[in-house]
Design goal:
Radius of gyration: 28 Å
CATH class of the largest domain: Alpha Beta
Structural class: alpha/beta
Distance between the termini: 74 Å
CATH superfamily of the largest domain: Carbon-nitrogen hydrolase
Shape: globular
Strand content: 15-25%
Amino acid sequence: MGRAVTVAACALNQWALDFEGNLERIVRSIDIARSRGARYRLGPELEICGYGCSDHYYESDTLLHSFQVLEKLLESPATQDIICDVGMPVLHRNVRYNCRVIFLNKKILLIRPKIALANAGNYRELRWFTPWSRARHVEEYFLPRIIQEVTGQETVPFGDAVLATKDTCLGAEMCEELWTPNSPHIDMGLDGVEIFTNSSGSHHVLRKAHTRVDLVNSATAKNGGIYMFANQKGCDGDRLYYDGCAMISMNGETVAQGSQFSLDDVEVLVATLDLEDVRSYRAEISSRNLAASKVNPYPRVKVNFALSCPDDVAVPTCMPIQWRYHSPEEEISLGPACWLWDYLRRSKQAGFLLPLSGGIDSSATACIVYSMCHQVCLAVKSGNADVLADARRIVHDETYVPEDPREFCKRVFTTCYMASENSSQDTCNRAKLLAEQIGSYHINLNIDVAVKAVVGIFSTVTGRTPRFSVYGGSSRESLALQNVQARIRMVLAYLFAQLTLWARGMPGGLLVLGSANVDESLRGYLTKYDCSSADINPIGGISKTDLKNFIQYCIENFQLTALRSIMSAPPTAELEPLVDGQVAQTDEADMGMTYAELSIYGKLRKIAKAGPYSMFCKLINMWKEICTPREVASKVKHFFRMYSVNRHKMTTLTPSYHAENYSPDDNRFDLRPFLYNTTWSWQFRCIDKQVNAL
């Protein structure tokens, strides 16, 4: 009898509402799966329309076009003699569901709606979909006429069921269902399901991969079975980067691993596995078998098809492998770089412009662009025709082949050092040297004329001339003068982004990159509408600590020696006058807290859900060796005052790559008021009472 089954899990770079492109990538993945002997093909969640459609899910057009794509898939010769499992929204009895549509040879076998919806952090599935709440229940779904004409079916099963083929039994999970305490695979496994499928829209967060891998492997460690995990990859239209990591696991061990970061739009992971290994694994787990004898059975949809061949004794099967994880520094180098590439090619712009200050943040951003160029050259070298076509379109040269990252960087990346009378020669030299080493087209300019003109208008109107604190001015005057410099840099960045290529006789425009890190955003240590205001920001979700480690990684792996002096220099905005030609202003002194402290505050505020009092209670234990309770209270109060005073800046924060779970992104991840009572009188009184008691 057949025992070796060959299955395929896909990672596809789908794009919200790009029905034509999504269809092409799905068909290509099915072609690859079939060519490698797979009899079951699993794709990512909502792959037909793209996961990130958001409020477009409300539109009937999204449903219509999804069914039109499904019609093309059913008719395609590529989908014959392979069970295809695709994701799309489906309206059933006027209720919208997030569904898997499973079909074989122009016949729909089952429409399986999602049972547990993702509704935390960046996810809002309950806004658009309803969870299927009738466990082990199946109804008739009346197909649209365009589908009836292809399949010859009027109705198909819709609900919580499993597929019974000639040789095995398969059950579907969808993304969040793997993360819930009572995942469907538990009861499905007890009911004899041997192959579990999971179609996901799971995004990248630093240090998250091991959690996902552990969940997949643990799904079959106690219960036995084969687990297939397919995922979206790339930027499908917003702040998230979906990081692929397609994988196939059996009996608690990984047998096939897909890439986490790559520029391949289509990746198909194929594994051949022995069903008898599942059966023998389960046979000796008596506690599992006792529970199985009492389980409530699932409805089974019979499928006249086998995933194995009758004579397959000599077919080689996959063996367990060790998962290879990226370091956080590698993740920063690769994830945002792939996200930038997707954004660049899909926005149809000609490159990026970055205000390069010579500090850690803008230098880290420049290194990520250089890493992107490096990835493009590697992809072209490995024969990726899609990347080559995109690169040629971006540089407007149909014969161009990107081979050297520095040369490609020169074509697509412009850096600009915007000096003022408060800038030091050191930062100017650092920016210039780094630009030379990565190959960017570098511009040096001075903003003093523009600053004096703007301040001059104010002086003409009011008859008053503001001064910096060191020259006897008030803190209000000094802050206003700093903000003028910062905002003029933003205006100039956009002017040069629009016209630099025009001035060089080249077509197209540039996207402006921001470079404010997650800690500065949390504290509000930035000028509203300064150079942190940009088109996109690849480091806006990354902490200062991680960026420093990433800079060290770039020194070692890209041989960017210019970064050494950048690493050793204290972070500074260079907006206040120099003292004896040297920088007197530093970021941490300005903020009244260190970046390391900021990172802790951010994690406690967001991840630990701590308000001022809870944060104080946690920190008096965490910092008991270095701070008295009164000092801790002072630090916590200062943080919450500054955080609440500056929270309004988050409403205009540049769209940033989401990499940290304590991101203060106000758009959809960290939903808070932006007008606070900044005295926190009740909360701070509770802290003071506790300090006095201690």
